[in-house]
Write a structure and sequence with these properties.
By secondary structure, the protein is an alpha+beta fold. Among the domains are: 130-206, Alpha-Beta Plaits (2-Layer Sandwich), CATH 3.30.70; 318-586, no CATH class. It has helices at residues 17-30, 50-64, 82-127, 134-138, 183-196, 211-242, 245-261, 284-293, 318-321, 324-328, 341-355, 359-372, 382-396, 417-445, 449-468, 474-493, 498-522, 524-545, 548-583; strands at residues 6-7, 9-16, 33-35, 44-45, 72-74, 144-152, 165-170, 174-182, 199-201, 266-267, 271-278, 297-302, 312-313, 604-606. The strands form four sheets. Strands 2, 3, 4, 10, 11 and 12 form a six-stranded antiparallel beta sheet that branches. The protein has a four-stranded antiparallel beta sheet with strand order 7-8-6-9. The protein has a two-stranded antiparallel ribbon with strand order 1-13. The radius of gyration is 37 Å and the shape is extended.
Amino acid sequence: MTLRPISARWFELVTVHKDLARAMECLSRTGAVELEARGHATERLLFSDIDEQVNAHRELSKRYQTHWPPPASAGKRRPEHLLETLSSARQRLTAWTKEADPIIASIERRSQEATDLEQLKEALTCSGPDFPDLQLLAGAGPRLQARMLLLPAGTTLREIEALVLFKSWRSPVASYVLVVGRQGDIGQLETQLPGLKGRVIPLPGWLPSSVAAALSAISERLAALGSEMEALKSELAALSLRFEIASALGDIALVEWFNQYAKDLRGSERLAWVTGWTSDQEGTALRRALDAEGVHYILRLSEAPVGANAPTVLANPGWARMFEIFARLLGAPARNESDPSLILAVIAPLVFGFMFGDVGQGLVILIAGLVLGRRIPLTRMLVPGGIMAIVFGILFGSVFCRDDLVPALWIHPLADPVTTLIAAIVVGAVVLLIGMLLDAVQAHWRGEASRWWGCRAGLLAAYLGLLISPLRLEGLALAALGAGWYILGSAALAEAGKLGVLMRAAGEFIEQILRLLVNTVSFARVGAFALAHAGLSSAILDVAAATGLVGYWIVLALGNVLVIALEGLVVSIQTTRLMLFEFFIRFLTAGGRPFKPIRPPDITKTDISQPGLGGAA
């Protein structure tokens, strides 16, 4: 547990080509590896031609993806060169394609016929019994031709005067037009269809004459088509099982994952070299994962290469990890910057609870955090926020907006608004002092402690003096001492142009001390929101009291829901704002690079392939 981020360690792993895929999967499952390829001129890229094969597979998937089973992979992978894995998978897909094409074509023909019949059924249903003889229409030709046209709902088709018949019907989702005429006239109408996003619905020759009989025949044909398609899909599934298409797609998914994260890996004819960063400082977790899979490897952890920018890892206990989101909003703390997550785990809930002090509402927020936190990790912050809201609810004597159920252990905000605002400002002053002390610690980490004590310590002394001065006049003397300390110290540390540095330091001091005071007063909004919360609760109670016995509880319940939803959001935003713009600016520049571990390939795990054959490392 530390306030200082940890630099990820550089690692180098050498393995044989046949174990590379398994090694990479092991490393990704640890969640402790970020890849960064580095090599020498004597080493070659291992997968220089992998892009072409992956792109070829993606083109194939556009045609067949809907007919393939979901990708699947065995729990334990065989030792095999990655390119051999890709070649074997593509060969199985090619062989499957040759036998599957006729089946797929049959499925697609029946699917299109079913779609056409469904639309024809809808058109006949809209038209009613006065539809012309369907058998005559289906057999029309060659001089006269009949067409049933489908158009988007509300679309109007331009009629041609020479047509023998032009009738239209509308449904909520489409417009249907029946036309009979000479071939040339029908052709003019068909040229309008592409621009109107319409098409022709075929009229099968087996249709009976009447609408009722036609609808019955269409239903029977649709049922038969459904049975035929199910049989064809079963045949296709059996074919996929015979060629092990699911495992082939799983292998290709692994290759695509490689192409995303590791296509720049280098090596020799027999060996592959995996390099990058790890948050596993001793390599224990990496070795354990590789050994469990039986991978042959050599792993070495060393200092970062010259010129490399090591990512920083935030090492926080589980209960504080959720608060890392605050620092990540700015970026990542550098190695010599503080990670404020541990401090925020205390300050942020404290500020939230101060503004949202109510026992009942805090309990609701606490329960919401416990329930939602299982699916949405970020909402786990509601748990400490809810606990502090309960604590301040006890201090303020508020339970579900009512202040007559428990006695206030401290104050009622509306009864003593001045104390509420002063307490909020005191909290803000403590937060800013913590930020300034973190700045001092960071100066020590950077080896600049003497410069901090020679100059910036004066700013801290002046701020403390101004905070004390309302209580004791000696505070003004401390503030004056701090001002001189900062200004004269800056000039003393300057190597040249001391007079100019002296004048500039005076201006900087005035600017920074004023900014500190403004930031301190800004925390008065914490007290203001506590007062607003109490005022809204009081207003809800007044409205509820005026609505009678039954209405009282309805208004009280709805009012509490409104407060939890509306003020909970506003208070969360204000807490975030205060942490980012009042606290962080004292010490955090977020000049580091975040650690981004590679994710494991997203492949469904099944037991369809053979057991692995890995040996001991």
